Amino acid sequence: MATSAPENAYVLDTAAKAGQERLNAQHMVLQSILDNRYLVAPLKSPPKILLELGTGTARVHPDCRVIGVDIVDAIGENPPPNFEFRTLDITSDDWGFTEKFDVIHSRLLCTVQMDWRKLVAKIFDHLKPGGYVEMKEVQFPIQCDDNSWETNGMKDFYVSWDQGIKKLGLDWFVTPKLPDLLKNGGFLDVDKIKVMLRAGTWGDTDKDKEDGRLFAVAQYVHPMLFLVPLTKGLGWTEEEAQAKVKETYEGLLTGNMHVYTNFFAMWGRKPE
Ligand SMILES: C[S@@+](CC[C@H](N)C(=O)[O-])C[C@H]1O[C@@H](n2cnc3c(N)ncnc32)[C@H](O)[C@@H]1O
Known about the structure:
Layout: H1 17-33, E1 49-53, E2 65-70, E3 83-87, E4 101-107, H2 116-126, E5 127-144, H3 154-167, H4 178-184, E6 188-199, H5 206-220, H6 224-233, H7 238-252, E7 259-269
Parallel strand pairs: 1-2, 1-4, 2-3, 4-5
Antiparallel strand pairs: 5-7, 6-7
Helix pairs in contact: 1-5, 3-6, 5-7, 6-7
S-adenosylmethionine (SAM) is lined by residues 5, 9-10, 14, 23, 26-27, 54-56, 70-72, 89-91, 107-109, 111-112.
């Protein structure tokens, strides 16, 4: 089984403790905005075996056997008894499995540089007939519908970040293409839901505000998602980038900047 990712394939460091904390906080928000459902695809029966791609810190899983794969083992002590970790680079040709899966799930892999058509084909091959793929991804760039982010240069920060991503040649914009990639890869009943993922303490309800606060914490207290494009892409110093991130984070916590990302859950069924 291949274990090494191509150079620059994944620029965010999950092995670091900060990376684990970021993923844990992010996980709580992503569960919350989906009403704590881990799988939203209309499965015809509960899965017996599920493959989790790019599993990260892997905290919650359905009540079935789960194999989580990643290039980094960030699981930590005492994984759930139904959970088994394997080191695997999902861009590799041989995933090394003999068994087939009822469900293959992935979340937040849009920051991984890879051939998504190839990934969809690998997923198709590794599912049982009638099995489901479910992918959950954010859709960059970050948005604001009412110009509230023009205060304090926050919009400029996000525009710079977007430019840094592009300068590095990173394709973090795959999300809207995924439903068609699934259809073209042979999946049936491809569908999706869209949920607003707020950054900052705004929204109609206390839950909206708390989710937004937690997402801001996840993104800004451990801000590698922002620092990498700004420093490596645009050549900002670490100090400049950190200062802008801090300013943005503080702005988000005022509740006056209505910044969000669209979060999609997308799925498809392998033919019987
Ligand atoms: C943004 S994190 C998401 C983690 C987890 N899916 C979640 O939603 O919390 C992306 C994960 O993909 C993993 N990853 C990056 N490149 C990979 C590769 N080539 N093969 C397998 N996993 C990879 C990273 O180590 C990291 O754990």
